[in-house]
Amino acid sequence: MSPRVPMKPAALLPAILLLAGCMVGPDYHRPEVVVPAEWRTGPEQGNSLADLAWWEVFNDPILQELIRSGLDANRDVQVAVARIFEGRAQLGIARAALFPQLGGGASYAHTRPYSENSFFVRSFPSTSSGPIVPEGDDYKASVDLTFELDLWGRLRRATEAARAELLANEDNWRAVLTTLVADVARTYFDLLELDRELEIARRTLATREASLDLQRRRGVQGLATQLDVHRADAEVAVAAATVRDVERRSAQTENGLSVLLGRNPGAVPRGAPLDAQRLPPDIPAGLPSALLERRPDIRQAEGRLVAANARIGEAKAAYFPRISLTGMFGVESASLSDLFTGGSKVWSAGPTMTVPIFTAGRISNTVKAREAQEQQAVAQYLQTIQQAFREVDDALISHRQLRGIRADRERRVTALGQAVVLANLRYERGLATYLDVLDAQRQLFQAELELTSTTRDQLSAVVQVYKALGGGW
Fold first, then answer.
1. Which of 13, 14, 133, 241 fits a 20 to 30 Å CA distance from 342?
2. pLDDT digits (tens, 9 = 90+) for 101-113
3. Measured between alpha carbons, how far is 177 from 73 in angstroms, rounded to an integer?
4. Domains and CATH numbers, the chain
């Protein structure tokens, strides 16, 4: 029988390096996604509206300045930036565990470790004055080293998860930017629409006040009945209430936009009026498959999924032994003057290993919890993609249909404007009642408001397409 030859430390190095390359837990693979071949509005080319920067989409200089102010001062943007800083710090914390940890310490103690009545003291001879009890000073200074061997990838999986969460935080910031740009533009167009509504309401109020004055004079002359006067007065009240209501909504919309810009509630400047706003005439949507990389919320959801997948490996590594290399070097002496002499050195070095033997299901349940969280992240990722496809389709359909709706409502306003002129002529010639005039004016007023609303909706549809495609960041 041949004698056993002790294995040298150098011979252990290849085995340690081989084990250090192990990574328990599943590697990430993107879930299979069913991507539509084209949008419902028709096939698209590779280019997309989202490829344009936001200042290329919105040409109003005032709107551009408002968006810049929002990007600088919006509170949601500031929170998103702070989360990125937090994510970077968390990644640094996770990565730090991969490296040796070095610490130092110093202590002083005046000790009397045994009492006079202890077995240890009574076992030795005593003097005439009583037992001899050891008592004295103890000075110590040391440097400690700890390094965990990441044989099963626990620390690397934790670092992988922290890195994925950092990337998800960065994509969350991009999603906040996209939402902010869209919200500022949409709210600004709401303000312009309210300005147009207020202009129509004030013009209508002035026209109805003039009509009421005319009916009162005709009533004095016996050419109009008191019923006509009351009807004209009621229409004046309707127009006046509309003016007040539009002024209220306009001020509240200004307050909402001010908060988006990171300001206290207040007035907001205007640029070109609603009818003069010009957005890109062509709204290419690009390929549906490109949405997976362009939309920041989809990228964020995938980052959360990558992190959840890595946490499974981190949890499974708890099944295996945890091995750490520890070392200590220091000096210890009963006298401070002798602390740094040659005979005061103390040191220790060696590996330590902890093995889970019985954990009452803690490790297995932790793994199950991480797997359930990963399943949730998969479902949320797929749902985010489906919601993104829906938002793009809805926005493209709205943009296409609103062009036709606006044309129809423009024709209606033109026709009702002519009807008001004819109704006045017939009334002046006694061929129609004043009720016919009021009815024609009422229809024209409503049609003008609806046309203004449709113009706003058409502009907002472009904003929605831009946001849904992931533009703005």
1. 133
2. 999 999 888 887 7
3. 12
4. 21-100+147-319+363-468 (1.20.1600.10)
